[in-house]
Amino acid sequence: MSETKQSNVLILLGPPGAGKGTQARMLEDRFGFVQLSTGDLLREAVAAGTAAGRKARPVMEAGDLVSDEIVLEVLNERLAEPDVARGVILDGFPRTLGQAEALDTLLADRNQRISAAISLVVEDDAMVERISGRYTCAVCGEGYHDTFKKPENEGVCDKCGGTEFKRRADDNAETVRARLVAYHEETAPLIAFYRDRGVLREVDAMGAIDEIAADLDRIVEQASA
Ligand code: AMP
User: Fold this and answer.
1) Is 61 exposed, middle or buried (0-12, 13-18, 19+ CB in 10 A)?
2) Taking CB atoms and a 6 Å cutoff, what residues make up the pocket around ligand 1?
3) Can you tell me the distance from the alpha carbon of 196 to that of 188, in angstroms, rounded to the nearest whole number?
4) Edge-first strand listing for the sheet containing 143-145
5) Best mutation site among 95, 103, 177 for ligand 1, i.e. most ligand atoms within 8 A of its Cβ?
6) How confident is the model over 96-122, as pLDDT tens digits?
7) Which tens digits make up the pLDDT trace of 13-59?
8) How many CB atoms sit inside 10 A of residue 195's CB?
9) Which of 47, 83, 145, 189 has a CA-to-CA distance to 198 between 20 and 30 Å?
């Protein structure tokens, strides 16, 4: 049986700290899409101690890219779950040209295509500050920042009321610099790749979170019209 309604496949591109996770979660709330973060999937695999997680852990700690094989394995498992039918926001994937080609094949097999690849354009220098101040609710994963996005009531998650928060092990200055290098070497070429395909949209992501979110809303509404 063929699926007639095209579900949305959005890609968020941008260096670490550009706000991909924050914006993906906001799009999830507003449009009912599912955020698929390969970083989150890999961190779950590391925490669960799976074979993929054991291989990924030292690579992630160094700020390097995990092999395409492992990333595709965790992504494929997640895509097999039923909640992705309405649409997905890919956050942190693809990150190499090899992954972008693998994604094309995977979507072609499912009779789907990319609605938009949105590049969050930021200045590298600001990213270390953005990343070193960020933390998330340990219960629901809502993202916060020491300077840019504090919970309304200190120590209490706005979204779920949780009172435990955590910071990522790889959000330290040294690893962040390695992650920025990996981004420029491996991932930035995807901007031209998606521009050539006519699906690239660029958004200035240095401003306020809500203004960036409003720009993304417009893009998503157009792309899914
Ligand atoms: P992120 O949460 O997107 O910042 O990813 C955290 C780390 O997970 C990265 O620094 C990489 O080591 C690894 N990772 C996440 N997504 C990918 C991917 N698509 N390809 C390779 N490595 C990835």
Assistant:
1) middle
2) 16, 37-39, 42, 59-60, 63-66, 71, 92-93, 95, 99, 170, 179
3) 14
4) 143-145, 134-137, 165-166
5) 95
6) 999 999 999 999 988 888 999 999 999
7) 999 999 999 999 999 999 999 999 999 999 999 999 999 999 999 99
8) 14
9) 83
Q: What is the pTM of this model?
A: 0.90
Q: What residue type is assigned to position 177 of the chain? A: R
Report yes or no: 176 and 132 within 8 Å, Cβ to Cβ: yes
Question: Atom of ligand 1 at shortest distance to CA of 40?
Answer: 2
Indicate which residues carry an active-site annotation.
20, 95, 134, 168, 179
In ligand 1, the atom with minimum distance to the C-alpha of 99 is: 19
3-state secondary structure of 125: helix
**Percent of the residues in the chain that have a pLDDT greater than 90, as a whole number:** 80
CB 10 within 8 A of CB 116: yes
